[in-house]
Specification:
Chain lengths: 216, 216
DNA sequence: AGTACAATTGTCCAAATGGACAGTTTTAAT
DNA sequence: ATTAAAACTGTCCATTTGGACAATTGTACT
């Protein structure tokens, strides 16, 4: 069991154990998506992480703390704030949304389920609620700034409040994800295209020729 | 305990017990919203319904069957298909959506939470998934027909596919509900107004003067 | 009153649960 | 090599769980 997983415990990593904690957190997030928050047990987490049951008690004060830390890490991954900040136009944004929603692999699905479980649990757990609310606020904020920067350049209605459109986009995306959970066969792309059309934006073109546009 | 709740056991109701079953179903739906699907126990259901624990085993084959039946009943209530069918214009629809999302009482909130739990559980439970998918399909269908009937009358883009707009509206509504769960302070009304503006529709007017329009 | 059956109730049980903790091994520093 | 702290592990326990079921009560009909 020595260097079994190839992840050598280097002495930079504070005290080791970070690896163990990490494995527990990943396993926990997986199981929240798979079983639902309320059905995750400490034993299942340990087993999934291929670790003994006692490990959980040692590294975390309670199951709930472990789960909260686990889902927050996963949710921060699924909200692509960094990527969004690099976008320059509403056209690019709509293209990204469409791609994100239509080409989903298994990994994306798990993270989406974690997101839904987290939003649901946030209603009961004040700490989680605050963290989630902050994340979603940041998310809308990034969208809002993107829209504001783009306004004037595109033929967007001047009267349209960027913050309102940002909320609309964020909610629409999550709502489509929600419907996709129930019915993966749904052609959600057409809903995104409809909104693009209403906004007077052509996301297709942004995909085929993403490069030769100047910014600023 | 005879005619305690005013609901006299009339001999038309198959065998009575319908009242007991009903109380269990209501309690179950309540607890799904309150605790989350995975944390609901048969004992908690019985206690909430003010009935002994054995009642659950007698009236339902398993906890899961009880929960599924309970949430389906609640979800059918929260999707206002009948109301939607009576609407005549997209303007009225946008007004209804705005009112529904902005003025929410405690009862609405519970039903919304049940809806979210159900959509999440549907991913694991094939029977529930099918029933939920059908309900959501009907929901979009009603919206689609409303949009189709309205097209031409309003200044809606002709190229806009009614089915795409229906999906957009349904997903946006549910997405806003989802965000509202995490942060009830959100001013989701402005997102609805933004969409109304994009659609070229003035929901405010439909509210202030709802009567003197002819239909058909 | 008597009969048949639906409805209800309390009790029981094996299995699973979260967490505690004493004991052991590993690591880093001297 | 010795030591102290950190990391890890298996075991234990009081509770809770879903469901089963025998016993009891209620109801409708003759």
């Amino acid at each position: 069991m020595d260097s079994f997983n190839g992840q050598k415990l280097n002495n930079k990593d504070r005290r080791a154990s970070a690896v163990t904690k990490d494995r527990l957190l990943r396993a926990a997030a997986d199981l929240v998506a798979e079983l639902g928050w309320g059905r995750v047990t400490t034993r299942a987490i340990a087993e999934r992480a291929d670790l003994p049951h006692g490990t959980v008690s040692y590294h975390f004060n309670s199951k709930q703390e472990l789960l909260i830390e686990a889902v927050l890490r996963a949710v921060e991954d699924v909200l692509p704030l960094a990527t969004l900040r690099q976008l320059n136009s509403l056209t690019e944004l709509m293209a990204l949304i469409e791609v994100t929603l239509t080409s989903r692999n298994e990994f994306d699905t798990v993270e989406t389920l974690v997101l839904m479980e987290s939003m649901r649990e946030a209603e009961r757990e004040p700490l989680l609620r605050k963290r989630m609310a902050d994340l979603l606020r940041d998310y809308r904020q990034v969208l809002e700034e993107l829209i504001r920067n783009d306004q004037g350049r595109s033929n967007l209605k001047p009267g349209l409040a960027p913050s309102a459109l940002a909320m609309l986009l964020a909610a629409l995306g999550d709502g489509l994800l929600l419907h996709l959970i129930v019915n993966p066969e749904l052609d959600v792309g057409k809903a995104v295209e409809a909104l693009s059309s209403l906004l007077g934006v052509k996301p297709r073109e942004a995909l085929s020729e993403p490069d030769h546009s100047e910014k600023g």
